[in-house]
Amino acid sequence: MNAPNKSGWKPAMELSEDGMHNGPATTTGNRALMLEEPLLFEIGRADVTGVDLPEIDTSALTRLGGLERADAIGLVGLTEPETVRHYTRLSRQNYGIDLGFFPLGSCTMKHNPRLNEKMARLPGFADIHPLAPQSTVQGALEVVHQLGHWLCTLTGMPAVAMSPKAGAHGELCGILAIRAAHEARGDAREVVLVPESAHGTNPATAAFAGYRVEDIPATPEGRVDVAALKARLGPDVAAVMITNPNTCGLFEKDFREIADAVHAAGGYVYCDGANFNAIVGKVRPGDLGVDAMHINLHKTFSTPHGGGGPGSGPVVLSEALAPYAPLPFVRKDDAGEFYLVEEEDGEECGPTFGRMTAFHGQMGMFTRALTYILSHGADGLKQVAEDAVLNANYILRSMEDILHAPFAASGPCMHEALFGDKDFGGGLSTLDVAKGLIDEGYHPMTVYFPLVVHGAMLVEPTETESKTAIDQFIAAFRAVVERALDGDEALKQAPYYAPRRRLDETGAARKPKLAYEG
Amino acid sequence: MRYLPLTDTDRQAMLATIGAASIDDLFVDVPEVARLDGPIRGLPMHASEMAVERHMKALAAKNLVAGDVPFFLGAGAYRHHVPASVDTIIQRGEFLTAYTPYQPEIAQGTLQVLFEFQTQVARLYGCAVANASLYDGSTACWEAVAMATRVTKRSRAVLSGALHPHYAQVVKTMAHFTGDTIADAMPAITAEPDLDGLIARIDEDTACVVVQYPDILGRISDLTPVAEAAHAKGALLVVVNTEPVALGAIRSPGEMGADIVVGEGQSLGVGLNFGGPYLGLFAVRDPKHVRQMPGRLCGETTDAEGKRGFVLTLSTREQHIRREKATSNICTNSGLCALAFTAHMTLLGEKGLRQLAAENHRLACLAADRLAKVPGVEVLNTAFFNEFTLMLGGKPARAIVRDLAERGVLGGVSLGRLYPGVDALEHALLVAVTETTTEEDIERLAQELEASIKETV
């Protein structure tokens, strides 16, 4: 049952027939380095603190307008050693890129260079206030300006809005700029076209911006159906939102033709840049007719995902949309001084659509992304795209003989390889393969997305894996897939070796328990 | 290139497996006109750690570090001392380099942290349920308005004049596109906020009334009458808090009847960071509103062996399931900042947070008393927590702030910067004081302010 393994690695413990450990139960519930950890509220106390602050007579709190808190807040504290241990123990129940291969398709889980972390923590970046006098934060404004210049040059676009806080926020920025541009010429278009393979954020964003969303079908090759899209274009279509490379891992080769048709019909082209890692330094989206595209700095430019953020989603804009960019933005004057254009700057604001966030964007992500970009340079970034695409194609061609690869015949994939669960036996599905990979020590690929493929498995290796690491993954992946093809019942109970077995998600939603009670 | 493990030999072997002659064969689907033949021109090539560090340090050195000078800026971003252990915790690779916990069996660390975070935020706010974070306070504020329109099926929001102007701008920007009506106002320069005036603006079409607490001028007042008035008209009360430390000293918004409480969590664990990344907090008082909430939620459950565990739950509200019918388009949130907040809050605990709040207030009272003695200066507020408004006797606050910076003091945020072009507000200065402020800092500000006022026309 164990995976054929090119590295020669074998599990240290013999397994019983049901795939379980043979070892005895422990009294603590711990298993050596696998440590259970209670909730903070079960170990902390109201009268314990891990900071040394002066004891102050709270009756001296005299200017609170009679609003002094009467009752306990209900918080608990730990001393520093207890705090460090609590969160360190919890951290060990997590999988991260630092621990192993993390081929989560569409999420670009590449190595996070530690120089980026170090630079973001320089007090000159980390300890400055967003509303400090601009003469005192020239270096910070220059970071925003330099990064913006790189993003514009890499995408071949004339302008960039830096303030959006994440990819979905960037999408919103682009779509609002599009709507503002239409409104400015009195054109009340109502529809945004979105391919059915799109990320969920695309339709959600368009709907949030007040548009009606219509699906565009995909061709059997996994690309946008250009004929269907062209047939739907008309005076009511404000924009199309297309991910390129798309979520099936393919380059939309007719993008330019689509863009020209959309422009001819008076609409704009939004490109979801989630997959920019495949083409960074190789292709400039501006050459393909894009009007707006967000760039997930936490994907392509390796700012850490942090267990779900923070991200950062600058949006590059075409000449047509640039005037509508949100405030504030950074400019450089003739004397070489940097300054922020804010609400007050009348004429310089232009017809901006407004403001998306309180301050200027994710500065902490800008410093990390700029550090990453400067480390790679134009040559390194090109190599990033090439290696990412090479690794994905290597996995595609190493798996397609045993695993359904619906678009393998469509040509090379880009930075991710897409598979489906069509041939699995014994009622097994994609989820079981994902959980089986967890037991093998891998973070699973993205599952059940995109929706256009049954039981989709989207594998994105990124460029920061060695050939050895990829070969080991392929061996493990093949072994688990073979078990699924054979209908191996044991896979239905996987994972066996993770900190938790399968969790009851239905129960969690039926009777939500969203805070500690007690 | 130090981050790229493939060797040329590897690349050749892999191309052979794929059946491609060269890397360019893998890019055949890119139209020829769009294919670049070499590295993009006009950009530098790769650089060593040392060279990059030198470049970034030179940029950082051009900024005046808050911790190096007497520092009094606030207005939605506060400088607090973050214990050293917070940063080592968030730099654990298992937290730093993890993804959103969609595979819960190997993400219990992140999930349990989120459950602890949600509990801490809910208790701090006096609410039943908090979500797993949003981008920042301003976007959380808009999400609260949007949620109130869904709950009440009404489309008008009344904003207090003393809501942070950037938050109001975000709400107005979004409402323009969603078709909701926003009734906003300018702040009145009065010692206490005009709650009667605010209540008078609530009508039968109002989905929610949005009030900041403490408000943009640092004032605090009992919001119970606003809650009662809103509820009498079938509207929700949204309370915005930009300084969570304040809630260690003053009553929680939930206690005063707020239905949705949102805020900025940056004060705890996160730092100033020139405005981002920050931490959006979002909570509801009544659990029946949970299904209308935006953003991720972590819930408790059990695994197949009956052990307690945590998962992301109620995701049928979210974009990756509901697409255009989702409660919000938000996907990525502020997970790592939430961890920093929670670790800092754990170090403080009930006792530490109350002490921290008391120390902030004590120093703010000292500062207010000292600054009130500067000729021509008056303290506007009757009540405040750690931030108050100074009236500069007709002198332009923006010019004074710039002049103070020249004198090596970051003296506050001028209302003129926040409300450009509003003559009535340009003589007011917001001053924030935290536990990081020393009595020497306060004395220095008082002296430089006195000199600056004398010399500024």
Structure notes:
The complex is a heterodimer of chains A (518) and B (457). With 518 residues, chain A is an alpha/beta fold. Chain A folds into two domains: 117-371, Aspartate Aminotransferase, domain 2; 385-506, Aspartate Aminotransferase, domain 1 (Alpha-Beta Complex). Chain A is built from 14 helices and twelve strands. In chain A, the strands form three sheets. A seven-stranded mixed sheet of chain A has the order 1-7-6-5-4-2-3, with helices on both faces. Chain A has a three-stranded antiparallel sheet with strand order 10-12-11. A two-stranded antiparallel sheet of chain A has the order 8-9. In chain A, strand 8 (329-332) and strand 9 (338-341) form a beta hairpin. In chain A, helix 3 (114-120) runs antiparallel to helix 11 (363-399), helix 11 (363-399) packs across helix 13 (467-485) and helix 12 packs across helix 13 (467-485). The model of chain A is unreliable at 1-5 (pLDDT under 50). Chain B is globular, with a radius of gyration of 25 Å. The mean pLDDT of chain B is 96. Chain B contains 14 helices and 13 strands. Chain B is 37% helix and 12% strand. In chain B, helix 5 (108-125) runs parallel beside helix 11 (335-372). Chain B has helices at residues 8-18, 49-60, 84-90, 93-96, 108-125, 137-152, 165-178, 195-200, 224-232, 319-322, 335-372, 397-406, 415-418, 439-455, and strands at residues 129-130, 156-159, 181-183, 206-212, 236-241, 260-264, 280-284, 298-302, 308-312, 378-379, 387-391, 413-414, 428-432. With 457 residues, chain B is of the alpha/beta class. In chain B, the strands form three sheets. A seven-stranded mixed sheet of chain B has the order 1-7-6-5-4-2-3. Chain B folds into two domains: 66-80 and 350-455, Aspartate Aminotransferase, domain 1, CATH 3.90.1150.10; 84-344, 3-Layer(aba) Sandwich (Aspartate Aminotransferase, domain 2), CATH 3.40.640.10. At the A-B interface, helix 2, helix 3, helix 4, helix 5 and helix 6 of A face helix 1, helix 2, helix 3, helix 4 and helix 5 of B.
